[in-house]
Amino acid sequence: MDDELKPCPFCGSNDIYIYRKYTSRTRCYITYAHCELCGASSKAHKYESDDKEINWDDVGCRKAIDSWNRRAKD
Questions:
Q1: Closest-CA residue to 15 (of 32, 29, 36, 43)
Q2: Per-residue pLDDT tens for 24-41?
Q3: How far apart are the first and last CA of the chain?
Q4: What are phi and psi of 61, to 5 degrees?
């Protein structure tokens, strides 16, 4: 798995961040990649850990990174 986030496929920005937030609808934490310039986001994935800090080895984080880095021609 590649740890480096690719630039945004829509605007080309490198200001991509992984966010974790609690959603009351699903009653769990989710992680997703988000472009700060244009607002594009990856699919949200369930974050399995209850740690206060993001664990990059968590399945949800790995899936968020992988889904952001996936491109149509890959």
A1: 36
A2: 888 888 999 999 999 999
A3: 14
A4: -65, -45
> What digits encode the pLDDT tens for the residues 9-26?
999 999 999 998 888 888
40 vs 61 pLDDT, higher one: 40
Q: What strands lie across the sheet with 16-23, from one edge to the other?
A: 16-23, 28-35, 45-47
Distance CA 46, CA 54 (A): 12
Residues 6 or more apart from 72 whose CB is under 8 A from it?
none
> What DSSP string runs through the chain?
---SPPPPTTT----EEEEEEEETTTTEEEEEEEETTT--B---EEE----SS--TTSHHHHHHHHHHH--TT-
